């Protein structure tokens, strides 16, 4: 069962209409709410600002039906900000109240009501009630006051110069305890169940007056079963007048029943339940006609406008000999364009080209793109200075017309598209590359774009692989974050995907997010992981994902979960369950779409590294997660009352094996969640995406290729060749094809053998550097194994390249000349004693550590510091400064800023160059590390001619100093 008062649903603030004028006024806390009593030019009991730029009068000619009169406010003079008439009064903390009123505005004036809550005389929370239209409109809202002890109702209006002389009217304002409302009986007018392969979105349209006393319930069962099963429930969304929720982890091609009903202790009669029936999708569709491409290279773009039927889909595929390639090059905007078409399958094609998008789908439904190899789309452009100041710093990749290149996709799903499936595809190697945050907001290509479509899509089991040389902007992108249809929109599943190399988000779920589900995905090497900013309607479900936040092309990291704020009037809720996060910065952060709170609930997530930064208490709900000490920022009671604090070492993080280590503190410490962990072992579920006994291959895909380890490491010295190679083991069942081949993401990366058989047996692949590679530093890439049947599996590769004659000058910080820093004894640190910056920023700025060096050979060098960022409040401790001899002191921000771990940081010049190249002449030099922020700890400093830190791996464990 689920109710609007419990943790899952209390986030909904209801704006509900009553059946008639004044029915809520009997116990009205607002005095003179009908404005009939005036004292001169002011309604009694209402307050005006000291400087008034409007005329107020009681108007008996303009009023809503049933009212005696109204308050008319006419703007006399322009002014900044909003005008207001207000009344403030005491309330009872912990109560629920109901506001109701009527507003009318002249065109453009936009009168509205705002409610402010106060605690101890200080503002506690603001609640907006929607703006009026041109006619009389009833506005209302039911809300919980939490700890507030006073309330103000503000009647507000615009004061722009163009509105002088215009008026706004307010009538019959009332605030009553919610249980005193006169309400219209509740009824479910329509219950819809919208299926995908493994999920069902449920929508219950409600008539009548909802309340926070109303309990919503949802259960389900397979058709023919006798027992109803529990669910995560439903959430109320007032703007659309719906109860919504999802059924998760369902079987394909299965008929289900779902039942929704409501109860309310303040209503005399219980509304009748509603039942809906639907069948989940099947992976197999009936093919009525097959169209084969010619063998060899086909250079003409493919335009599809045909319409199949539900019983006879039309399939486009390659010639039976397997040699067909569709390479449109630059002949057209798209290699394949699907327009006003239905029931189409594009299957196991190699697709290249398209000056904008490889595949574009618009005004079409029931389209399946499966097992395709998609690459080489888009315009690479030319990196040039910005021609438009609004674009940002630049430079950007510009086309021949001087316009920024952005939003070019391997697959574009746009207006009018519905029920599009992209599955088992390999989308990689765009012609262009994204800029980084050093240039302003990243711009560039993406693998899949969802742009103002009708939703109801599935993106599953794809390998979406960028490269250091061809990074995506977002791996999966929504084109219009602030629009309801701007991204996945509704009833969309993103599952089983591998997503590497983006300079911004791994995926943008932003937009409506009505029953959007993101599960069983692996995201690595991006700036942010999953963005839900904003969630305009909700709910969305993000569960059993692996996010390894290694950073964008400069190594900078941001949020694993980027949560929105309160710009939208009624933001929807995000549910985060059973995710495993290793974030080199923030595991989760709120308020990325407005400064106020947005509803979020976390359960059973494993934050192996990364702070949870969520300063808004009202709508957050965090519990049963595993996290490091001081990583909940702020640590608000009762958040994480049942959480586990500790360090998870994992089976083998370097090999990408994020399964729980033996005797992990996360084992059996989760909470039961219907549909999410029904099959858990033991008395309680394990925390994280990988329960004990999980398969080492992730994401889990039915009948898929096995490629292990998931991550590998190779090493090289320039001029001396490979020093360490990696062995990958591939196993491809015969059902997936006859043979497999290996594709590497970058030219410096080699794999042998390049082919092998699909025989269900293990085969070894050796991964190494190309001996001709002359790039140094940390290089990151991917190895993808793809069968001729069109199935894929990728592993992530880190490559470390050092110069032939390596120079390293390394010293413990306490052994060097220093001032301002204090010596701190640590028990779990890399050395027994470290230096700590002062607790005042001005004192920290005057503190320094000096490293003297003698350089034998002039050249390029790099500065490193083994530093510790304390938590909570890690953003206030994550930087130093650097000075070379007597030169300029430059800002040294830490691109990786997770708290409570010792990590090597390489110097950079903020937003200009990472790593910072330091040109030194032969002779003696002094490098000075200056403090900047407070309490930053430094264990060692080093200078080397390699951008790779002297100790390249994170030192595991917690430090005692906090």
From TrEMBL:
Keywords: Signal. The keyword Signal applies. Residues 1-26 form the signal peptide. InterPro entries: Galactose-bd-like_sf, PbH1, Pectin_lyas_fold, Pectin_lyase_fold/virulence. SUPFAM superfamilies: Galactose-binding domain-like (SSF49785), Pectin lyase-like (SSF51126). Transmembrane segments: none annotated. This is Right handed beta helix domain-containing protein.
């Amino acid at each position: 069962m689920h109710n609007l008062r419990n943790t899952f649903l209390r986030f909904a603030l209801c704006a509900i209409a009553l059946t008639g004028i004044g029915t809520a006024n009997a116990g009205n806390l607002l005095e003179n709410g009908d404005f009939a009593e005036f004292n001169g030019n002011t309604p009694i009991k209402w307050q005006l600002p000291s400087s008034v730029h409007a005329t107020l009068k009681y108007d008996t000619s303009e009023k809503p039906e049933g009212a005696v009169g109204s308050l008319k406010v006419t703007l006399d003079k322009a002014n900044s900000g909003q005008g207001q008439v207000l009344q403030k009064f005491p309330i009872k903390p912990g109560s629920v109240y109901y506001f109701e009123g009527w507003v009318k505005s002249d065109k453009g004036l936009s009168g509205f009501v705002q409610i402010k809550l106060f605690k101890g005389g200080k503002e506690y929370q603001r609640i907006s009630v929607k703006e009026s239209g041109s006619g009389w409109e009833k506005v209302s809202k039911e809300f919980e006051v939490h700890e507030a002890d006073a309330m103000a109702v503000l009647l507000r209006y615009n004061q722009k110069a163009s509105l002088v002389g215009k008026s706004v009217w307010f009538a019959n304002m009332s605030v009553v305890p919610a249980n005193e409302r006169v309400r219209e009986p509740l009824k479910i007018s329509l219950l819809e169940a919208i299926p995908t392969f493994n999920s069902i979105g449920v929508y219950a349209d409600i008539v009548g007056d909802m309340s926070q006393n109303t309990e919503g319930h949802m259960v389900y069962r397979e058709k023919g079963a006798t027992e109803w099963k529990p669910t995560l429930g439903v959430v109320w969304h007032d703007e659309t007048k719906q109860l919504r929720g999802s059924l998760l982890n369902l079987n394909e091609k299965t008929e289900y029943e779902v039942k929704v009903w409501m109860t309310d202790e303040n209503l005399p009669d219980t509304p009748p339940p509603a039942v809906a029936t639907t069948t989940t999708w099947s992976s197999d569709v009936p093919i009525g006609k097959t169209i084969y491409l010619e063998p060899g290279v086909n250079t003409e773009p493919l335009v599809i406008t045909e319409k199949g039927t539900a019983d006879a889909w039309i399939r486009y595929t390659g010639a039976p000999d397997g040699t067909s390639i569709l390479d449109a090059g630059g002949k057209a905007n798209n290699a394949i364009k699907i327009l006003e078409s239905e029931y189409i399958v594009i299957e196991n094609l190699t697709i290249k080209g398209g000056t904008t998008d490889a595949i574009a789908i618009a005004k079409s439904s029931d389209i399946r793109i499966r097992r395709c190899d998609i690459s080489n789309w888009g315009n690479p452009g030319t990196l040039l200075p910005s021609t438009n100041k609004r674009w940002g710093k630049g430079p950007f990749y510009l086309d021949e017309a001087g316009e920024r290149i952005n939003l070019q996709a391997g697959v574009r799903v746009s207006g009018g598209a519905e029920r599009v499936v992209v599955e088992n595809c390999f989308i990689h190697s765009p012609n262009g590359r994204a800029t980084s945050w050093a240039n302003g907001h990243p711009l560039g290509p993406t693998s899949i774009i969802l742009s103002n479509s009708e939703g109801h899509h599935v993106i599953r089991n794809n390998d979406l692989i960028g490269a250091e040389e061809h990074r995506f902007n977002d791996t999966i992108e929504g084109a219009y974050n602030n629009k309801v249809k701007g991204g996945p929109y509704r009833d969309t599943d993103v599952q089983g995907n591998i997503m590497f190399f983006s300079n911004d988000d791994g995926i943008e779920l932003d937009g409506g997010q009505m029953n959007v589900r993101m599960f069983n995905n692996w995201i690595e090497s991006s700036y942010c992981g999953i963005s839900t900013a904003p969630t305009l309607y909700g709910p969305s479900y993000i569960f059993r994902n692996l996010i390894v936040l290694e950073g964008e092309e400069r190594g900078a990291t941001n949020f694993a979960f980027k949560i929105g704020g309160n710009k939208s009037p009624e933001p929807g809720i995000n549910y985060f369950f059973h995710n495993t996060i290793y974030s080199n910065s923030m595991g989760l952060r709120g308020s990325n779409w407005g400064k106020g709170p947005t509803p979020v609930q976390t359960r059973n997530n494993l934050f192996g590294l990364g702070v949870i930064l969520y300063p808004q208490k009202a709508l957050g709900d965090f519990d049963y997660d595993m996290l490091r000490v001081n990583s909940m920022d702020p640590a608000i009671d009762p958040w994480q009352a049942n959480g586990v604090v500790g360090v998870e070492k994992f089976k083998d993080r370097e090999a990408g094996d994020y399964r729980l280590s033996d005797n992990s503190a996360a084992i059996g410490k989760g909470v039961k969640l219907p549909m999410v962990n029904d099959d858990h072992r033991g008395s309680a579920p394990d925390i994280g995406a990988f329960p004990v006994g999980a398969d080492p291959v992730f994401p889990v895909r039915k009948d898929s290729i096995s490629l292990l380890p998931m991550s590998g490491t190779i090493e090289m010295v320039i001029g001396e060749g490979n020093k360490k190679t990696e062995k990958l083991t591939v196993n491809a069942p015969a059902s997936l094809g006859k043979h497999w081949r290996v594709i590497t993401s970058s030219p410096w990366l080699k794999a042998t053998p390049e082919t092998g058989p699909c025989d269900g047996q293990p085969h070894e692949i050796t991964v190494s550097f190309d001996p001709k590679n002359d790039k140094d530093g940390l290089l990151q890439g991917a190895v993808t194994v793809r069968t001729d049947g069109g199935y894929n599996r990728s592993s992530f590769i880190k490559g470390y390249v050092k110069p032939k004659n390596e120079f390293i000058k390394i010293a413990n910080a306490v052994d060097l000349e220093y001032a301002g820093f204090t010596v701190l004894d640590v028990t779990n640190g890399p050395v027994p004693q470290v230096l700590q910056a002062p607790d005042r920023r001005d004192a920290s700025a005057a503190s320094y550590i000096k490293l003297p060096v003698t350089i034998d050979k002039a050249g390029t060098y790099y500065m490193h510091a083994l530093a510790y960022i304390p938590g909570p409040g890690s953003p206030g401790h994550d930087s130093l400064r650097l000075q070379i001899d007597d030169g300029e002191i430059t800002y040294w921000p830490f691109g990786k800023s997770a708290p409570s771990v010792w990590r090597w940081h390489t110097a950079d010049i903020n937003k200009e160059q990472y790593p910072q190249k330091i040109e030194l002449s032969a002779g003696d030099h002094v490098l000075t590390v200056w403090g900047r922020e407070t309490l930053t700890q430094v264990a060692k400093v080093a200078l080397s001619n390699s951008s790779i830190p002297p100790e390249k791996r994170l030192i595991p464990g917690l430090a005692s100093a906090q």
